[in-house]
Queue: 3 jobs
Job 1
Amino acid sequence: MVKIQTETARWVYEFSESNQLAHLPELIMLGYDHFQEASPLVIHQHERSYEYVFVDSGKVTWEVDGQLITSHTGQIFHTRPGEWHRARLNFIEPCRIWWMILLDPSEHVGWLNLPDEERMEIHNQLQKLPRIIPVDIRVRELFTKLRDIIEHYEPLASCRIRHYVLDIILQMLNPSSNRQISFDLQKAMFTLTETIQAAPEKRWTNKDLANQIGVSESHFYRLFHLMYGQSPANYMDRLRIELACQILLQKEISITTVAMDLGYKTSQHFATVFKKYMGLSPSQWRR
């Protein structure tokens, strides 16, 4: 039987030579997690394998070789074979994610039944991928189909699994989410988010931000959601809470001071927002 671990908010498939998908060793693991509060995710690596994490909802901040990388809803974060990585501060934020650990194409002749020329071309392109890839929301459907096939072991299961896994890979190699956004506008948006990050305590309105890049308020909102998978307000709240998590580790700084420094009018409001995103109160996180 296929080895499956099922919990309230977690589903995992793991390859085994004795299961019905024994002739599909490329797919080492596949899983889904719904983290309703900040949860441990410590440093680890995957020898000879890539890991791909699709953020279905929320935001995740990763650390790879000392560098912090943030992935948002509708984006895939990936690590290359042997890279050590973890969630920031060893805790993953509340989120929903699909993830897949896939053998390096260069390690397996017949990888996903592809001829050697195509297999090595995919290997070469994967080596050049940016750490964060925006993908079509259809990727969620592909992961859901993979789970369905594995759980019910439908006819031609191996063939269909190869097809959907390859579809996910090709979506990463040919991302489409930002094609309709001009390079100049993307650059302006990146500069804008850097401005927001430099002054997290400031209470920006959508109108303020839209004026910064010279577009209408409604167009700015759609543009921001397309690029970052969330509203500007959610983005700014998550940024403040991310900073709060780091500051709260300094136990000599009071929770009220943290709240005021990040622009919250009261510590109660800060605690409410903190628990919304972290699933814990500031004092619980500090402990």
Note: The longest strand covers residues 49-64.
Job 2
Amino acid sequence: MSVWAYLAATLGVGVGACVRFSLGWLDRPKTFPWPTILANLLGSALLGAVLALSDGGALSPGVTFALGTGVAGGLSTFSSLAVDALVLWRDGRRTAATAYLAGTLVLGLASAAAGFAVADALA
């Protein structure tokens, strides 16, 4: 992997993180972690698409690294998922916490599959 690929991935992380931060403004005041769900679903769809395009030879390893590890990695966030679920649980909203965790997992898998399918069909 070239130095340029690492630089591109680093910049991609910044882009993904800025998008994730911007999504947080969609839910003010914060009542449920919708921005985190949206960020994780978008990141999953992007990573699925990157995988399909990479498998099909449409993306070089460097671009795959920059988009997958960089942008998708910066956009999605496991730590926020964990903390949001903990806060819901601690606040006595156990059903919401459980639905949040299960829903994110199921919808994340579906988003990754959809991203893969769309990119595969377009490639």
Note: The two ends are 24 Å apart (CA to CA).
Job 3
Amino acid sequence: MKERNIMIIVAVVLALAALSPLVIIKNPNEYEYNNFKLQKSPTGWVTWAYKGEQPYLLQLRHDPKTLENITVDDRIRDLVLSKPALATTIDPNLTSRAVLGAIDIANILGRRLGLYGIQVIGATTEFANNGTYVIDCSDVQKDLNVAVLKLGEKTEIKLEGNCIIIQGATEEDINRAADRFIYEIIEVME
């Protein structure tokens, strides 16, 4: 009887030891970042943001961990939320890859989702065609922020006067900086 109890105890301990890695190993495609749940999707990363009790499913191309090296001026969030409109503007000579960052900003901050309800206006920094606004930093107004997505030496998000500069060393880095900008606004990253 005593031998049987010892065998049962040993079997239970071995079973627990064998199963313990399953408890410790986390799914690399899911994690929490500043109390926000993130999950890998076929086209990027999904996170859930809340406005009151209302959840919003947000899709971005990059996850916060890969964007931690991008610096952001800490005044940008308050500036963006202080005005009812934001013009995202790019150099018309950039490829569609750079445009994707502006589209993501419009989708998440704009009126489509209702999360922030900011009127987002797409524009270029110089003439592209008769149907596209030409907007640059000189167009910042009392009710209009301007965010210029552009190439530069360093990938960062900064202010030049009251103009928001979303800058990347490459066009892909412009997209990374745009995602970092969004995570900053929705307070996933601070």
Note: The chain has four helices and eleven strands.
